[in-house]
Amino acid sequence: MQADTPRPLCIGLTGGIGSGKSEAADEFSRLGAAVIDTDLIARQLVEPGQPALAEIIKSFGKDVLDAGGRLDRARMKQRIFADVQQRRQLESILHPRIRKQVLREAAQAQAPYCLLVIPLLVETRADYSLDRVLLIDCPEALQRQRIRTRDAMSEVDIDAALRAQASRAERQAVAHDIILNDAGLPALTVAVKRLHRQYEELAIAHLRPHPS
């Protein structure tokens, strides 16, 4: 991006595991937002042959790989959920690379605004220049039910996953906008459409030249 080219409006979308972030992001994408998913970028960074994977193997050992030589994501998750030091080590490898790619994609976006999907936004928001934060929220009981159904995780693993993330209250404290996703996909779609219209208006104002 040229130095005199204004960057697009950037909205950080976050939420706990099982909150419905992906469904919300998909709907924003269908409406025309440029969606940049940090989880997707992270997966690309750990493909075989990528420098990040080599650094992970060096730090954690070859037992984090599956039989095909790819990162065993389930095993890696178990390790980092159980050990905060290992989680921080993995984050130190991936987060700078993720941030670099996010900034590159945001600069190239051809949309009214960018939606940055950042599950660990509470922990890493200082790494990104965000204009607003959108939280996809839901009660913990529903969150646990969704995780149990989707990922077939044990209660012990669910407890570890929730402890490894910011609390619901911490996410609510940094959010400008909150969608309570507890009433099914149709209600989520309506809420996303409402915010999309709001973000389009903010994007126009964001790009309008300011009087000097």
Description:
With 212 residues, this protein is of the alpha/beta class. It has a single domain, classed as Rossmann fold, CATH 3.40.50.300. The protein is built from ten helices and five strands. It has helices at residues 21-31, 38-45, 51-60, 73-82, 84-108, 121-124, 140-151, 155-163, 168-174, 185-207; strands at 9-14, 34-37, 113-117, 132-137, 177-180. It has a five-stranded parallel β-sheet with strand order 2-3-1-4-5, sandwiched between helices. α1 (21-31) packs across α10 and α3 packs antiparallel against α5. The longest helix is centred in the middle third of the chain and has 25 residues, at 84-108. The two termini are 22 Å apart.
Briefly characterize the structure:
The protein is of the alpha/beta class. The chain has helices at 21-31, 38-45, 51-60, 73-82, 84-108, 121-124, 140-151, 155-163, 168-174, 185-207; strands at residues 9-14, 34-37, 113-117, 132-137, 177-180.
